[in-house]
Amino acid sequence: MAEPASESVTEVPLYLRVAAALREDLIQRRISPGSRLPSERTLSQRCHVNRQTVRSALQLLRDERLVVTDRRGTFAAAEEAEPEPAAPALTARRPTFPGGPQAAEALVRASLTWEPPPTPLAPRLLLTPGEPTLVHRHTVLGPHGAALQRAVSWFSRPALAEIPQLSRYRRGRDCRQQPDLRLLYHWMHQAGLRITHRESVGVPPGPAATTAGGAARLVVHRVVSDQHGHALEITDIDFSAQSAAWTYEFSA
């Protein structure tokens, strides 16, 4: 079994670190589909945690349909496990990523890459200088194909460790397909994170304050943090105030 990440590196809750270690074993097939997992007592001894922590980790993996439990114990989900339920429908009252409900429903182009963030952002994302992370780029297009809004988001080490829906991209899966991260904040809630959003809106200095057409440019800088104060996501949104509106709705 893979060892849980050191608390000094990620400082995430114990049960999430145990779940991440087990998840990696399941995904890498170190635990074969259909095979039985070690007992709660064995797992607690291996991971140096109490059994309640192990139970919480296993419950998270059950919610992800990676394991199943019956009278005999807990087993890795078989290949023919039922598909995941459909994602909840997006509504105006559900917070959406990265630009709010209007941007979520507009014509967009999105991509995911794996690259180092700008050097000043690395320590805020708990990354070493030059260390790559998941980067999301999102462009909202107008009726004639002109870009109305651009956004780029960098994800932190804790975000990739704690949010299962993001960790799959960390393993290089689906990165070439246009990603749908509109339910990112819902995923954070599912992972047990209590998140804080801090946004600042400003105008670029000098000539950059207007577009080629003379419209005012606005920039939004967002930092989403967890209950420990660790940044999960840092996003920069740039748009023309004349041709697009930045709409963001959130309720705790």
TrEMBL record:
CDD domains: WHTH_GntR. Residues 12-79 form the HTH gntR-type domain. GO terms for biological process: negative regulation of DNA-templated transcription. Signal peptide: none annotated. Residues 76-101 are annotated as: Disordered. Keywords: DNA-binding, Transcription, Transcription regulation. PANTHER family: GNTR-FAMILY TRANSCRIPTIONAL REGULATOR, MANNOSYL-D-GLYCERATE TRANSPORT/METABOLISM SYSTEM REPRESSOR MNGR-RELATED. This is DNA-binding transcriptional regulator YhcF (GntR family).
